[in-house]
Amino acid sequence: MRDFRRFFMVVGCGLLPLLAVGCDSIENPRTLVPGEPDVAATRSVELHRSQFEDVPVPRGFEFVTRGNRSFNYARGGVRVGRFLYRGRQGVEEVAAFFRRTMGLRAYGWQFRSQDVGQSNTIIGFSKNRVDCTVTITPGANGTYVQIDMAGPA
Question: Is residue 119 in some structural domain?
Answer without folding.
Answer: yes
